[in-house]
Structure formats: C-alpha cells, structure tokens
Amino acid sequence: MQLMDAIQDNYKIISVVGMSKNSGKTVTLNQLIDEAMERDIRIGITSTGRDGENQDLVTNTEKPMIYVDEGTLIATTEGTFKYTEAKLEILEVTNMNTSMGKIVIVKAKTSGYVQIAGPNTNREIKIVCDKLLTYGANLVIVDGALDRISSASPSVTEATILATGAVLSRDMNKVIEKTMHQVQLFSLPQLQNDEIKAIASMVIEEKGYCVINEDHNVVPIEIKTALNSGEIIGRAIKDDTKYVVIGGSLVTNTLKKIVQSTRKYKNVIFVVKDATKIFISSKDWMFFKKVNIQIEVIDKIEPLAVTINPYAPQGYYYQPEEFLTKMKKFLNPIPVFDVVLGGE
In a 3-state reduction of DSSP, which class is residue 152? Predict the structure, then answer.
C-alpha cells in the first residue's frame, strides 16, 4: 500500500504536519510527490509560512529541499526563488505579503529542487489552495508543522498526514505516547446535535464563550480569553448546564481550574472549534480523561496516516522494524508508513 492510495479520489487538499523539526515531514512530502508523479497526478504545493532562513537554526543543518516534477504548481514567496533549482513560470503575483515578499503562484517548467514558503494565515492558505486547484492541480498538499498545526484545521485542509520520529525522544515509548496523543486529539468526537452546533459555531466565530442548558438557552460568559479564566467558567456551570462553548484555545490550566472550582463539570460537554485549539500534554490529557472531562469539536480533523522516521539528527536511532510494528499496533486502524526505509 502507498500513501497515495488513501488520498487519490478522496481528497483535494491535504496537509502534512510534522510533530517537530526532523520528524520526516519533508521525506513524507517527497514520497507523496514521487507517488503522484508515478500516477500522473498534478500536484499543487504550498506551506504554512517560513522564517526566511536557508539553514535550520535548531539543528544547524541545511533545510531539506522538495523535489518537484515539471508541471507542478507551487504557491510560494518571492524570497524563495534564490534557493530554487527548478525553472519556474510565474502564473500570478498575489497581493498577499509576507516577510519574504509577496505570495506568487508558479509552475515548474523543469524538474528540480525548490524551497517553499506560504502565507501566514489560515484564510490566505485556503485562498492559495483554491487558486492552485483553479490552475489545474488535482491535489494540493500543505506543508505544515505542529507549531503551526492550524493547517490541519478542516477550514483549511480536508485531511492530515502526521509525521513523527525518533527526534522527539531517545525513548521510543515516549514518541509513541506523544504520537498517540496527537492522533487522539485529531480523532475527538464531533458535536452531533445540529441546533447546539449552530449556536456554538456562531459563538466561536465571534470568539465568545457561553454555557448552554438542557433547554438550549444560552448564557454568555463575559471573558476575553479562557486563559486564567477557569474559575469564572467553573462558576458559570449550573445544575442544568449541558455544554460549555470555548471560543478560543483550551489549555491545561483552564481545565484544571474548572475541575478545582466545581464538580458539575462532569455533566457537561466542552465544545471547541477543532483539535488545533487544544493545547494539553499527553500526561495531563490522561488525567482529564480519568476525571471525566468530555470534549467535542465542531470540525473533526481527519487523520489520514502517520509516517515515522526512526533516525534522529542527534545520532541515535531505533530499530526500524520494531518502531514500525509498535506504532502500527498502538495507532490501529490508522495506517503507518516508514518513509525513510519504505514500507507500511
């Protein structure tokens, strides 16, 4: 089985999100491009911003290049042209500005290596993805990262491939735990009640906060942010409260304060836009599950597959077969691929 088997004919826009630098995200991207070339699928590629450096300042290594085929469509910045080996034809200069110049839609006139830097906001990423489709891409891939995980949001892309690897820890079990946790967040249940969903969506759109009771009455919570407001949210939960709508990010400290301030939280469902709004470690997540915190999302993220890299730039590595076997066991039924050595 190839990665493209899970994508072809099912999705138009996907993201590849790395759990950290050197987790194998670019190898995954290049693998997808290779498979697309074999199948005669025209690819469009963009990225979630970039810092303008040609070298990775964390590991002091050259940033990996992406190899594209002739005809590949790319949304990138003017500033990346000096790092590009493929000859590019400019199709459109947009009015979107970045620190590396305007976002430009180009087509590769020859095969070769390129570097890609995209827009900085979700709205602009979605716009350039749609432009790439309009210019003839069959599939658009957004190069993302966990610190910019909003590219996985369903408002931007339809599904996500998560790249993980040994770089996260010398302890293989910790890498598996962190990856499982991220997949669990992506797989959070979607809010099913259509009336509540409509109300919650409107509140979240306005970055508001509220509680909704069993009669679907809405009581706003007058806060600007959930950060440091856990006690206020806790006090707003009454005996008949069924939902707590969080219009911004949901973090560990907020939930801990809610748990400490009321026992009524056990009867409610916390609603957020999607899993990219949740910032809770795997250890804290286990605690919240144990105390019966329930979270549902307006938009569910589709985890398509997980790719693994058993090698770390620090010099250590895992036994590839063992790493792949364990990941497949713990992430089942989500497909897992070793993109470094090949194979599923």
Answer: helix
Q: Which residue has the tokens 């991207």?
A: 29
* Alpha-carbon separation of residue 82 from 52, 70, 113, 114, 274 (angstroms): 11, 18, 11, 9, 37
CB 76 within 8 A of CB 49: no
CB 65 within 8 A of CB 115: yes
| Cα distance between residue 178 and residue 287, in whole Å | 15
144: confidence class by pLDDT, cuts 50, 70, 90: confident
More confident call, 106 vs 99: 106
Global pTM reads: 0.85
Those residues whose C-beta lies under 8 Å from the C-beta of residue 213, and which sit 6 or more positions away, are: 219, 238, 240, 241, 242
Instruction: Provide the CA 177 distance to its chain's centre, in angstroms.
Output: 18
Amino acid at 10: N
Q: What is the pLDDT of residues 266-280, one digit of tens each?
A: 999 999 998 889 999
Closest by Cα among 92, 79, 91, 75 to 128: 75
Task: Report d(CA 247, CA 168) in Å as an integer.
Answer: 30
List residues bridging with 97 in a β-sheet: 102
